[in-house]
Specification:
Layout lengths: L2 E6 L3 H17 L2 E8 L7 H27 L5 E7 L2 H11 L2 E7 L5 H8 L2 H8 L3 E5 L7
Parallel strand pairs: 1-2, 1-4, 2-3, 4-5
Length: about 140
Amino acid sequence: MPGFLSAFDGSRQSIHAFEQAIELAELKGAKLRVLAVIETPELHEPEERKAIIEAFRGTLEEAMDKLKPRAADSSVPVTWEIREGHPVDLILEEIRDQDIEHVFIGHRGQKGLIRELLMGSVSRRIADYAPCTVTIARQSGPKR
């Protein structure tokens, strides 16, 4: 069974990427993995860092919970995971370790334009380095 990955950060574009992923997974008979990555903050004390990570985790869990009814209505086996670390590294690791054939990612996620200009786009790096097909969702999905 082919494996698809939806890189998720709770943004409208990542929701749209998830919708595209689940639709194509249904057509292709693929399984879908939804991965969210909490970028580990480096500039905080350990206790502050833990609080920030837990706040992001709660926000991502709530956003993922909103997608679960759509997944349940489909015939697609879906797994959900939230990891901590560098998004590009962890997404590429997931692609290799899970034998992913197709990645779906939003064009610009929660961090927005300023971070992209300063540090580069996660979606662009995934498109450059992923050893599989990458779909970048450029349209915003429905408001949730």
